[in-house]
Amino acid sequence: MSSSPKLLDRAGIWSYVPFNSSPRRRSIGNGLPRTSAPATNGRPWDPFAAKSSTHVVGSGSSQPTILESIQNAWMTQSRQARYIKTGGILTFIALLYLFLSGGSTPGPKNVYTPADSPTARCTTPHDPAKPLVQYAIMIDAGSTGSRIHVYKFNNCGPTPELEDEQFKMTETKPGGSGLSSYKADAEGAAKSLDVLLEVAMNTVPTDYKSCTPIAVKATAGLRLLGDDLSGKILDAVRTRLETQYPFAVVSREKGGVEIMKGEDEGVFAWITTNYLLGKIGGPDEGPTAAIFDLGGGSTQIVFQPTFKKSPHGGMPPKMEEGDHKYKLKFGGRDFELYQHSHLGYGLMSARKALHQLVLDRMHKQNPDSRAWLSKPIPNSCITPGTQKKISVEMPADHELKGEHIVVMEGPEDSIPAQCRALTEAILHKEKACNLAPCSFNGIHQPSLEKTFAKEDVYIFSYFYDRTYELGMPESFTLRELNDLTAKVCGGEKTWDAFAGLEDAIANLRERQETCLDLNFMSALLHTGYEMPIDREVKIAKKIKGNELGWCLGASLPLLEKESGWECRIREIS
Question: Are residue 242 and residue 186 in the same domain, yes or no?
Fold first, then answer.
């Protein structure tokens, strides 16, 4: 009887698996036969052909050896180990991300039921790539004070729909409460916005804060401080927003915290108006409205001219190139707008220019004497029978340079035509026009009568303030504006028409330059912009309950991709 082999003499598993070969480096050839298999039915052997589900044992076939079985088992275990390790690593990364992001993704979920939807309009967004609800924050850093607008939009349709707006402004202070009032105190300027940002913190839900863009746009008041001081203030504001608040601050490249250009202010106001009117952003591609904004220091005009080829020539088939041409993409449409911001032609600037003109003409009549400066100076734009003490700053290159405190005296009887002549004079219609046609002061402008004859025209800001308080309806013609001006300039004997309006007569008595204001508005629209006398205009302060101005128009682009911000990962408190 042959002796049985000792247990220790048996070949173990490790005897068949070489340690110098790593299972992680297996090539695909290790799983293929090392010798060619015989052809079957005259066909060559295909290593990628499907194996038969039934194993047939016959001549020429062989069972796998013990070594092959062990190697296959080892390879299978190694592959399983790699899968387990890979899955473990991915799970760890996912858990770590959820931990750092506060247990959820940066933004809110995107699918809702009617019971938990953040908007009553719908439960799913029109575009699955967008959230159902978005918020945007815009801070208007003006010279007299700062204002915050917190907007809520839904994406139920192809264009965001404005659902709500929260607004607050800084407290009025002597010398202003805007960023520029802090001058060298950059940190104080940045902290002055905290009271406004409380509104944003209380309005935007927690789940939305990290994906809510915020931008700060300063106006010309900050520019007057110079590049050094204004730059430090803007940097301090950005730093405070990025370190003290959870919102997504728009990048420097996209103008997140900046001094806004004049042309952008007008175009954003145009977007606001036409968006609220439903003229842009919807399925219809009808005509848009023009906007005329009259501020204190400047006035803006923006409209979309339509050029038609004339058989007799004269009118160009398209807008001339220049800074006035503004190309805009919004709501899937391309717009080619005319825009211009006339600096120095706001209402307060117009008052100063007119008073300077009055003094200049008096000086030309009395070149050798200045005694007249201490006497009442006739001014046809002051309410008849009244006097007003006015500070007039004459230009440095004028013989009367410097500040003069004078008394302006209105005429005994109404002479509104003479006042209108003064307001037309400060428009400088006679100035050379290098690129025809021009509006005033040598500025190129397509003819409103030829390129914008029938579309809606909206006038707001001081246009609204001065006419609405005197009982003017939502729309009126320039001829009717002239009639109103004549009644105001007639003095108290013609003010009976305003007796039924609250505070109207009291305001006229207190504001003795109202005749000047209305004459300037009429001259600006009719003589300056060359709008026909019977053209109808519309005044508005709000549309659909929302304030007009540039802020909404500047916020809408922030809802689109690549607008200069990314969601921030929320930190765990």
Answer: yes
300 assigned ligand-binding residue: yes
Give the per-residue SS3 of 268-324. HHHHHHHHHCCCCCCCCCCCCCEEEEECCCEEEEEECCCCCCCCCCCCCCCCCCCCC
CA distances from 88 to 84, 99, 401 (A): 6, 16, 81
Domain co-membership, 491 together with 357: yes
- Indicate if the pLDDT at residue 360 is higher than 90: yes
> How many independent structural domains does the chain possess?
2
Residue range of the domain that includes 364: 347-546
DSSP codes of every residue in 70-107:
HHHHHHHHHHHHHHHHHHHHHHHHHHHHHHHTTSS-SS
For 139-198, write each residue's pLDDT tens digit: 999 877 899 999 999 999 988 999 999 999 999 887 778 899 899 999 999 999 999 999
Is residue 5 in some structural domain?
no
Q: Identify whether 496 is part of a domain.
A: yes
Is 317 or 462 the better-scoring residue by pLDDT? 462
pLDDT of residue 206: 95
Residues with catalytic function? 265
Residue 117 assigned as binding residue? no
